[in-house]
């Protein structure tokens, strides 16, 4: 079986599925090999409505005309996605970075959809499986596609770039994320820069932060469309942070008041202005797109409960984003500051060092109380009997502590890696 024939079946289907439980009528089920063998769930997928199956079992495929044999089903999925993507002569934006890529993606979508039929990655479908699934949802009516690309090791962004074939790309920043897989900050830079390598080799457009010295150094003399506060940027932007911490941005006599809090979100918003200008969207629509965006999914969400003001940022955390968010919170004019901080995961040999740095930063600033949650924070702080912090191994232990309803009229900052599940404490606040 070849990819072109498989694509013909794809066009006759209603989409693709990799999970028999989510399979719907007239879909193609890909029996991927993961923790479990997808071939074991083919019958379930058929019962749920799958009309076609892609499998690496020759015996099964030889006895059913709607079964397609490929030696590697994941490769088949990726090749199908690449084939489908290449049928569309539209701008495809590749987006990666250590911090802010999902917020930036959502801002891009909000701005570009003011004028174009825009499609963007849903949720966290940004890996070697998620990107192909995303590309296969591009339709004839799509005018611009935004593809978020995540990575935790070398060569992953290169793979995704070669599947998605972006015509324009942005790396939001380089930070201390996924150090366990990348090995070091130098490894992060090398891994993320695979996007730039692809774009340069294909003479595609690079959107870049002109204020980021490292990125400017890497890009050297390659022509870019840039944004930043410096005068020689393609798009000049200035920021304002109000007393509560909300970010406003100014460009070309236009002021945009966002619903995003924290100085660290300025670059995300600035890049959204730049993408709008790149696609010749009028300033009023760029302003509308950014101001209409309201963060959700536990990303920089501002919640006013009956008792407290809560800044919830628990979708993910790494040392770079944690530091930036904390400094922004400390610098805000919010009263009665409370911190609830969870472990930062996937740091490998840098685990204790990076957590200790956050502890040191916290102890140098002013707040009422700090609650640390997770095995790493607990291990470090348990060795220090003089600390004034409250420490818990799990979020459930913290919830038990908070059930006394002692936190009232507080400004509470909550941040930690997704695996710590700090969002569970909101109901107690």
Description of the structure:
The model has no long low-confidence stretch (mean pLDDT 90). This protein folds into 3 domains: 3-70, Udp-n-acetylmuramoylalanyl-d-glutamate--2,6- Diaminopimelate Ligase, Chain: A, domain 1; 88-292, UDP-N-acetylmuramoyl-L-alanine:D-glutamate ligase; 301-428, Mur ligase, C-terminal domain (Protein-Tyrosine Phosphatase, Chain A, Alpha-Beta Complex), CATH 3.90.190. The strands form 4 sheets. Strands 6-7-5-8-9-10-11 form a 7-stranded parallel β-sheet, sandwiched between helices. It has a 6-stranded mixed β-sheet with strand order 15-16-20-17-18-19. It contains 17 helices and 20 strands. The longest helix has 13 residues, at 73-85. It has helices spanning 3-12, 42-47, 58-62, 73-85, 101-112, 130-135, 156-164, 179-182, 185-192, 194-201, 213-219, 266-278, 283-292, 319-331, 351-363, 375-381, 395-402, and strands at 16-17, 28-30, 52-55, 67-69, 92-96, 118-120, 144-148, 168-171, 205-209, 225-228, 235-236, 238-241, 246-251, 254-261, 301-304, 309-313, 337-342, 369-373, 390-392, 411-415. By secondary structure, the chain is α/β, with parallel strands linked by helices.
